[in-house]
Amino acid sequence: MWALPPTDTVLQVLSLVALAAQAMSAALAAGRRRMDWVGVCFLGCITALGGGTIRDVLLGHYPLLWVENPFYLALTAGSAFATILIARAVHRLSVAFLVLDAIGLVVFTMAGCDVAWQVNASLPIVIVSGMITGCAGGVLRDILCNDVPLLFRSELYASVSVVTGLFYATAFGLKLTDDVWTVLTFVLGLSFRLLAIRYKWEMPKFVFNEDRK
Amino acid sequence: MWALPPTDTVLQVLSLVALAAQAMSAALAAGRRRMDWVGVCFLGCITALGGGTIRDVLLGHYPLLWVENPFYLALTAGSAFATILIARAVHRLSVAFLVLDAIGLVVFTMAGCDVAWQVNASLPIVIVSGMITGCAGGVLRDILCNDVPLLFRSELYASVSVVTGLFYATAFGLKLTDDVWTVLTFVLGLSFRLLAIRYKWEMPKFVFNEDRK
Amino acid sequence: MWALPPTDTVLQVLSLVALAAQAMSAALAAGRRRMDWVGVCFLGCITALGGGTIRDVLLGHYPLLWVENPFYLALTAGSAFATILIARAVHRLSVAFLVLDAIGLVVFTMAGCDVAWQVNASLPIVIVSGMITGCAGGVLRDILCNDVPLLFRSELYASVSVVTGLFYATAFGLKLTDDVWTVLTFVLGLSFRLLAIRYKWEMPKFVFNEDRK
């Protein structure tokens, strides 16, 4: 998410916008559970920055982004707090937020792959690192809201992250020009996610009902 | 919490007492959920030591206090276990425990600021580090008890920690004599928390009810 | 779990089988909560590998096993996924899985002790490290399934881990031949756990009902 080279200014801007959007969606979830203002800001920060944080802790990749650059804390906490004032508007723009969330999923996945690549992780770990960066924040949000994580129950979310990571990681193997490949991956991942939302594609569920005796 | 210099003997003692008190309060929460003896001891340890542990993992500050000095595990597990025997008494002393918990909040916040300061974190991270140290243990407790974290729902708890940290951190900037400032911060933070309890000050809540369509 | 010396081939094989078995049991739990296929695989990985991961993060022992050797991810995710196809069979073999889980508990505890020993942790931490390795995966599973962790509520599970660790750790002190002691510990730990299951031994519970006023 934060490891993009400075030339990728567009992706940088997109990732900041996506961080803010994820914090704002989390703030709405906090509002549904009647959290107080502090809880809203916390949940915004943890949801938006949690994926990258878990990845860095698992890879032993210190210092964490937001420790080095507290601006990210201010951005996400501020976005969450602003949501309290403009909740109706945020809610009405829910389609826009789905798109922003999808952009975040793809951009964060790519950035997670980059970080793992930099610490010389193997290819499977590069992909897992992308997936953790893209998805784990939402899992933390659901745990803190006392839900079974949505990620585990529905939609092509983690799958989009895996496909994006796979596609992106082949670039490392093929040594293609970064820029072209980055744009291709972004377009592919985003389209996949948006189509999945539009046509309600879902992973098959595993339903097991028999009571243990 | 544990980073206080040896001269601060009073604070050291207070922090040990507060650790024990937090473990004992957590043990009562475990009892309300009918946990077994092992669960009671675990919940006591995790609640009392969890904030400092999360802080150290996020800052990459190893070894963890309780790894280096397992006495802390014995103290908190022992206090939790003792609570099983004297639950009624602990319950009856709930006001005393609220005060001890408030002392812990302030002392742990200051110690968390100290640790971040030692690893040369920036000022916002010093304050966040204090807040994590003071508050995250209770969040872990609530997650393990399968509740929405109390911290996110009510009371001036995290806010007290932030104000304490802000006040304490200005000392680093101003290079005042440590001892005076430490005492001042302690008194301010504790008073703030106790007044918040006494007069039931609360953060405003963010309530958002409209169902997502 | 993964730190066993190459001579312990039998234990190595047992630990792989136990990892797969824990992932498969977790997959059934996922099926009871109607998770999708991705959730099933995640829950399998997190349950089987989570204990060792938490231990390594707390001890600052990098790189994590599954980062270094992604085969473990493939093994546990694959086992969980296979469970979707053969859920009835897995369910019918529940006694076999209880035994495999017990083997895992003992083998992982011993491996956790080994890791802590290698990083020169003190004796109490060696035992705690074994317990975290053996038990924490199940706690993560229960948190993600939105349950109060089973570990905290019943059965001699953590206790078996502690006794196994204590017994195993005395070998470090006594400098006995490793092999003999390893086998002895394995037999003792496994017998203890199986007897506890067979005769429904339980930890006493701490029940505290009085409402806080």
UniProtKB/TrEMBL annotation, chains A, B, C:
Domain Glycine transporter: 13-87, 99-170
Keywords: Cell membrane, Membrane, Transmembrane, Transmembrane helix
Signal peptide per UniProt: none
GO cellular component annotations of the record: plasma membrane
Membrane topology: Multi-pass membrane protein
Location of this chain's protein in the cell: Cell membrane
A Pfam short name: Gly_transporter
Transmembrane helix recorded as keyword: yes
Domain of life: Bacteria
Transmembrane segments: 71-90, 97-117, 123-144, 156-174, 180-196
InterPro entries assigned: Gly_transporter
The family this protein is said to belong to: Belongs to the UPF0126 family.
Identification of the protein by name: Uncharacterized membrane protein YeiH
Annotated organism of origin: Bradyrhizobium lablabi
